[in-house]
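As a warm-up, study this chain.
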Amino acid sequence: MLDDLRNTSDQTYVETTIQADDFAEYDSKPPAPRFLGMTPFQRFVIVFLIFMLTCVLGSFCLLVTEKVILPIF
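Now compare it with the structure written out below.
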């Protein structure tokens, strides 16, 4: 079964040559480094969510410890 595997393929093998010009566009500029694989906008969203979480939890902690009292109560 596997002895004649190369001859049983439906497509024919066509050898192509690789030119040096094919890689010229990739060598011109190295990719920008990413922190944890995220784009700058994704990092901004994560930092913004952590900031909002800190503000909400800090305010809640002040309310629970009665350091700040809301005027509606």
